[in-house]
Specification:
Length: 185
């Protein structure tokens, strides 16, 4: 199914108060500055990912908000995978923005108030294969030159809070100065 694409738009929002692989979609989310998605298990000033929390519980939470491009879902269909918003654990499913090409420190302005600063790429874990066998190979690929390409979305921290709804516009603000590529967080 082909959808009409709107440039820089929130397609869907999701949150879950428990650490589960997928997040249910909701009618809106509230972003809290320095904390993340209100009511989400990954919200907090310090790391909330269970594995990372065991390693260093006082580390800053660079993964307060997870973004995933809906275009990825369309790209997966010919490979035999069907994925819907929230099913890969993202908080915000976007349309019309090449998320993986954004530089470090890019600010995404969501709706009327919210602003998120991009901290890095999500590195999908093997739990993805438990969700759909073999899906991880579609999200992390290595080209002939040995370069790893990740397609598991990007992460960020909330700079300014606000409510985010499906249909909200997303404005991209690139950082001043040198454009640094995203690393893995």
């Amino acid at each position: 199914m082909t959808r009409v694409r709107l440039p820089g738009t929130v397609l869907s929002v999701s949150r879950d108060d428990k650490h589960r692989f997928s997040k249910p979609t909701v009618s809106s989310i509230r972003l809290v500055a320095g904390f993340g998605v209100d009511g989400d298990s990954h919200a907090g000033a310090t790391v909330q990912h269970l594995y990372e929390k065991k390693r260093n519980p006082s580390a800053p939470n660079l993964c307060q908000v997870h973004f995933m491009a809906a275009e990825l879902f369309d790209d997966l269909v010919p490979t035999g995978y069907t994925v819907a918003p929230g099913e890969l654990g993202e908080n915000v499913t976007t349309e019309g923005i090449n998320l993986m090409s954004l530089p470090l420190g890019t600010r995404l302005h969501l709706g009327a108030q919210a602003v998120v600063s991009i901290t890095g790429m999500r590195s999908p874990c093997s739990l993805i294969n438990g969700y759909q066998k073999g899906l991880m190979k579609q999200l992390i690929k290595t080209d002939a030159a040995g370069t790893v390409h990740r397609r598991g979305g990007i992460m960020g921290v909330v700079v300014r809070g606000g409510v985010v709804n499906p249909g909200d516009c997303i404005r991209v603000e690139l950082p001043a100065g040198e454009q640094l590529p995203l690393g893995v967080v």
